[in-house]
Amino acid sequence: MEQQFPMIQVVDENGNLVNEEFKKHLTPSFVQSFYEKLILARTFDRKAISLQRQGRLGTYAPFEGQEAAQVGSAVALDNDDWLFPTYRDHAASITFGHSIPRVLLYWKGRVEGCVAPEGKRIFPPAVPIATQLLHATGAALAEKRKGTRNAAIVYFGDGATSEGDFHEGLNFASVFKAPVVFFNQNNQFAISVPIHKQMNSKTIAQKSVAYDIPGYRIDGNDIFAVYFYTKRALERARNQEGPTLIEAVTWRYGAHTTADDPKKYRDQEESIQRKTKTDPVLRLERYMKNHGLWDEEKASKCQDEASEMIEAAVAEMEAFPEPNPGDLFDHVFETPTWTIQDQKEEYMHHLRGEGR
Questions:
Q1: Residue ranges of the chain assigned to CATH 3.40.50.970
Q2: What is the C-alpha to C-alpha distance for residues 100 and 313, in angstroms, rounded to an integer?
Q3: By the 8 A CB rule, do 93 and 114 touch?
Q4: Helix, strand and coil in the chain, % to nearest 5
């Protein structure tokens, strides 16, 4: 099956173009825009970890190493499409137009962090594993029934393929030709469990065969491969040809979350080696240098602008008013049940130091 689903690349680890099909699209402005988005994503991730260590955010799920998979796929979306992220897909959400201060508020435990900007169809991050695949399939099917050309993309990790929701989502989408792209980021660990202990399949892409839908296995650190093949899958969806499964093979350098210690289950030397060989930002820089697109001054300015944007977002996030404790209860049902209302009243009495 690995031969049936070979690893697809447009640019290799050394920054060499290995697929001429897309060469005409790689204009200087196109390449530069991708670089800027990657730098913004990495700057955000590192800042969020720093904020968590300072006690200014709660537990956080880092994504460094997976930027190309998230940014490249999100750029491929149209404005009216749907995006269903996991708890690790903040780079995809930000690239698609989510508010950076509100993404930070999510990690501060604020309900405002679940609210996308007006007009952006971005679901709150899914913490339960694989549940968002069913939501994405449903939203895509609704768009189909309304007669639009809008599509949905749903992100999930390799561990999600062990859940029943994964299979139910793909089966339902296949049967009804829902315009949805199932985008797997195979970072090769489900928390502490390596992929060879999760499944006997050689690839995740081959699982598409069971549902008679296209499957691509792409180099998830090659932002151009990610973009062009996600774009291809989205066009198929828009043409009412049904879903596609994409396996983007990548790697997370750090912990599963800031509450995790990866040294207990993974040789961190491999992460160090990958940073010098297959890193998505480094690969794009190598491509730019190989093709006369690299500008040291422009790159430095790009980093400065990203840092300024993130610092401004942090300031905006921390300027938000104090949270309303009632938020814990007010968004469970549209109309609170008597049990929820009773719990809320009891909790409010407790906060005020009053008896009941």
A1: 20-322
A2: 6
A3: no
A4: 50, 10, 40
Sign (positive or negative) of CA dihedral 98, 103, 104, 110: positive
**Tokens 């897309």, residue located:** 22
Spatial CB neighbours of 54, under 8 Å, sequence gap ≥ 6: none
The token pair that represents 230 in the structure block: 């996600």
Q: Which of 252, 274, 283, 286 is catalytic?
A: 252
Per CATH, the homologous superfamily of domain 20-322 is Thiamin diphosphate (ThDP)-binding fold, Pyr/PP domains (3.40.50.970)
State the CB neighbour count (10 A cutoff) for residue 44.
24
pLDDT digits (tens, 9 = 90+) for 315-329: 999 999 998 888 889
Catalytic residue, chosen from 25, 53, 265, 349, is 265
Catalytic choice (256, 274, 283, 286): 256
The band of 355, judged by pLDDT with boundaries at 50, 70 and 90, is low
How far apart (Å, rounded) are the C-alpha atoms in residues 267 and 14? 24
Residue 292, helix vs strand vs coil: coil
With 70 as the cut, is the pLDDT of residue 356 above it?
no
Does the active-site annotation cover 349?
no
Tracing tokens 């289950």 back to the chain, one arrives at 265
Q: Which helix (H) or strand (E) holds 246?
A: strand 244-249
- pLDDT value at residue 2: 66
AA identity, residue 40: L
Q: What is the average per-residue pLDDT within 144-173?
A: 97
274 carries an active-site annotation: no
Amino acid at 237: A
- 17: phi then psi, degrees, rounded to nearest 5: -75, 120
Q: Quick one: average pLDDT of 88-96?
A: 98
- Look-up of token digits 């405002």: 112
Residue 83's alpha-carbon distances to 71, 131, 263, 334, in angstroms, are: 12, 14, 32, 23
- Determine contact, residues 65/247, Cβ cutoff 8 Å: no
- Give catalytic status of residue 256 as yes or no: yes
The total of other beta-carbon atoms located within 10 Å of residue 119's CB is: 8
Contact partners, residue 196, CB within 8 Å, separation at least 6: none
Q: In the predicted model, what is the mean pLDDT of residues 217-222?
A: 98
